[in-house]
Amino acid sequence: MFSDDERSNRLRTGILNDFLGGFLNDVERARHLGLPESTRIRERTKIISPENLVLGEHCWIGENTVLDASGGLEIGEHTSIGLNCLVFTHSSWLANMMLENHSGSDLIERKPVRIGKGCFIGGNSVIMMGVTIGDFATVSPLSVVSKDVPPYSLVSGNPARVFQRYDQDHIKAEAERVRAQNAARRAEAQARGETPQWGSPPGRRADDVPQ
């Protein structure tokens, strides 16, 4: 039933890891995959060629995301990649066009992807091969990133383009705003006799303003 060749045995390891990962929580799954201890990686995430993945501390990877590291993939510390995202570091386009789409084809093209530190990649986004996303960049959900993204910028769309640029002062001001709102929410919850389970209890406040 089982093929006993190099490719089959290599792929079977990934299949078994995917199966076992379904029984682990996000921290246990990261530990099993040999990722940094502070990593949280959600269920059904697939890593292709994990030996070529360099992942920083305190990263979060969402459900159903595919990280293709076959061409080299580096993700900086404190970066989150949302659910259902696709990160590609290879393309078989020429192999298809030349009718040479067989295993081991020399028409497979590979280029590394680098995602910087402190980045937020929104859900259902696609990062194409060869792209560099600068530090502290934000990719809006449902975006297709086919070109480099500057640091401290927000990109959106298909193809993604820059919609906003910001700096550390803007980020710090937003952090202070959110911390103040969350502190007020916790105080209100405690006044009601509740013990918040998270840093920000649910519920809308009168001073909430859509950002």
Write up what this structure looks like.
This protein is of the alpha/beta class and about 210 residues long. It is about 25% helix and about 25% strand. The protein has 4 helices and 18 strands. The protein has a 7-stranded mixed β-sheet with strand order 1-4-7-12-15-17-18. Strand 17 (about 155) and strand 18 form a beta hairpin. About 25% of the residues are buried. The model has no long low-confidence stretch (mean pLDDT about 90).
Describe the structure concisely.
With 211 residues, this protein is α/β, with parallel strands linked by helices. 25% of the residues lie in helices and 23% in strands.
The number of helical runs is 4
CATH architecture of the largest domain: 3 Solenoid
Q: Report the portion of residues in β strands.
A: 15-25%
Total count of strands: 18
Subunit arrangement of the protein: single chain
Average per-residue pLDDT, rounded, comes to 90
Strand order of the largest sheet: 1-4-7-12-15-17-18
Q: How would you classify the helix and strand content by structural class?
A: alpha/beta
**Might you state the CATH topology name of the largest domain?**
UDP N-Acetylglucosamine Acyltransferase, domain 1
